[in-house]
Design goal:
112 residues, alpha/beta, Rossmann fold, 46% helix
Length: 112
């Protein structure tokens, strides 16, 4: 099965990729960081570098991967400031809302 993992280089994605590959799935992993593409290659996943908050880039990434399944693990959690918790989660909240919308629209547009 072809699986597209959005947020593949994050804390959950990094652990999920080897499990999916070990179960025999073909996996493409989305990361926004070109530097993390080699991390994904190390798990035998096809790295796709794109910004999940760019709808055209997400559409291109999903079109490239042609997945049967999309797994959403998008987050952006960097050094949380417990005194300003909302600011620390602002980008993750955008990914949860906008990123989810872009993934769904892209996947549905590319279903054969």
């Amino acid at each position: 099965m072809k699986i597209f993992v959005a947020g593949a280089s994050g804390a959950v994605g990094r652990r999920l990729l080897p499990l999916l590959r070990g179960a025999g799935h073909e996996v493409a992993g989305l990361t926004r960081s070109p530097a993390k593409a080699s991390l994904l290659r190390g798990t035998s996943a096809e790295p796709i570098v794109a910004d999940a908050l760019d709808p055209a880039a997400v559409m291109d990434a999903v079109r490239q991967a042609q997945p049967e399944i999309v797994v959403h693990e998008l987050t952006s959690i960097k050094g949380l400031d417990l005194h300003n918790f909302d600011r620390g989660f602002a980008e993750t909240n955008r990914l949860r809302k906008e990123g989810t919308d872009y993934l769904l629209v892209s996947w549905l547009a590319n279903i054969d």
